[in-house]
Amino acid sequence: MLLPIGTDRRLRSLPWATISLLLVNCYVYFVLQVRPGAENLPLVYTRFEWWMPITYMFTHGGLWHLAPNMLFLWVFGAHAEDALGRGRYLLLYFSAGLTAAGLHGLATAGYYPADLDVGLVGASGAIMGVVSLFVLRFHGVQVRFFLWLLLPFIFSVRALIVGILYVACDLGSALWAMASSDTTKVAHWAHVGGFIAGGIWAWVLRLPEEGTDDLQADEVRSLIASGAWASAAAVLQERLARNPNDPDLHRQLANCYEMMRGTRKLAVEHWNENLRLLLLAGQGEAATGRFRTLTTDYEPADFAPPVLLRLGAAFEREEAPDDALIAWLAIPRAHRDSAQAPVATMRAAELAERTGDAARATRLYSAVGRYWPDSREALAAAVRLEALPD
């Protein structure tokens, strides 16, 4: 006997949808299947009723049919629910069950038409969809198995290997039965249909990439702990190629480049991207806090004009005028030819005027007209200069 009993991954929350499915399966088996009318719960193609494609998923042929299915559902379903959320997880479950029923029906009609009046029961088709999504999303996770030979034995296997073995076993058994014209009590084509549905869900949602990111994140942590900064940066670059708009990846890369010789310019580039993405995501406080920290090692002028312009606006919203002026005035000082230079100088002048620093406001308004006379800001600066008291 070979049964999955757990994984090395910790759940983020209690899997209420999985628990609900477990309870419904048990309720149908222990309550509804012992009542009159239970013969209408399986999916019988020759006397099809609209509810059968759903009820068959919760109907089982015996306790030893129910128990392993529920074990598989708990071990794999809880993590799949973690990955998808409850709503999408339930959609996965039922769509896999429907796909399983469809493929089983097609295979039966094509190769075993006499079995069309045999009822299809069991949650395994739907559960195999869950297993498929789990092994593709969490392909680096170790799955623990219990094996009983002469003595009990517990061992772990990588999830991707588990998925390959399950698919190979079911597909091989289904093809062998077709080739030998032999019938089987196990609906292997239903299992294959569930696998296909789970695989489609995983690929559409790009879940295998998330699994790869998890593995590489662990690798990066290990490399950094050992001081292998260049190797860690190489792995982070691979992750960044898949997720270019992840500000935390840019932060990690900047930290790596800071620890390497001759890569300060690369560190600045990634700090720029980190700040830009934080600002675009509306995380102004995180961006301004990081900028304050970074300016202990870097000059404000090291950062790109668009980033500095946005940072100044964020500081102004936080009512930190001194920091806003630092960000804005770094643009004309270091990037005078940039499109942001007259804008930043004008904003700095307006801020100085609002905070009562008329002398600084006068100098900045004058600078706008002197250095960027053809800009839109130059005309506005001239008007403001006339309005300032002598």
What does the model show?
It is a single chain. Helix content is 67%, strand content 5%. By secondary structure, the chain is mainly alpha-helical. The protein has 2 domains: 2-205, Rhomboid-like fold; 234-387, Alpha Horseshoe (Serine Threonine Protein Phosphatase 5, Tetratricopeptide repeat), CATH 1.25.40.10. The chain is elongated, with a radius of gyration of 32 Å.
Q: How is the secondary structure organized here?
A:
Layout: E1 2-7, H1 16-30, H2 52-55, H3 63-84, H4 86-111, H5 124-137, E2 142-148, E3 152-158, H6 159-180, H7 188-204, H8 207-225, H9 229-242, H10 247-258, H11 264-280, H12 284-294, H13 305-317, H14 321-334, H15 340-354, H16 358-371, H17 376-387
Antiparallel strand pairs: 1-2, 2-3
Q: Could you name the CATH topology of the largest domain?
A: Rhomboid-like fold
Mean pLDDT: 93
Spatial strand sequence of the major β-sheet: 1-2-3
For the record, the count of structural domains works out to 2
Q: Number of helical segments?
A: 17
What pattern of helices and strands is seen along the backbone?
EHHHHHEEHHHHHHHHHHHH
**CATH C-level label of the largest domain:** Mainly Alpha
Task: List unreliable stretches of 5+ residues.
Answer: none
Helix content: 55-70%
The CATH homology group name of the largest domain: Rhomboid-like
What is the distance, rounded to the nearest whole angstrom, between the alpha carbons of the first and last residues? 93 Å
Largest sheet: 3 strands, antiparallel
CATH architecture of the largest domain: Up-down Bundle
Percentage of residues in strands: 5-15%
Q: Give the overall shape, derived from the CA principal axes.
A: elongated
Task: Give the beta-strand count.
Answer: 3
Rg, rounded, reads 32 Å
Protein structure class: mainly alpha
